[in-house]
Amino acid sequence: MLSAIRQVAVFSTPLSRTVSQKVMHPTKFTSILQNVPVRPVSGWQIFLREQLHAQKAKGEKVAAAVAIKEVSSRWKSLSDAERQKYTDLYQKEAKVHDDAYQKAMNSASPQQFYDENLLRRRYKLPVLKDPKAPKRPHSAYFLFLAESRKSDPRLISLSVSEQAREASKLFKELPAHEKERFNKLSDESKENYRREMDKYMSEITEHKLPSEKPKKKAASKTDSKKTAATKSKSTSTKKTTAKK
Question: Hey, what's the torsion of the CAs at 53, 55, 57, 62, to 10 degrees?
Answer without folding.
Answer: -110
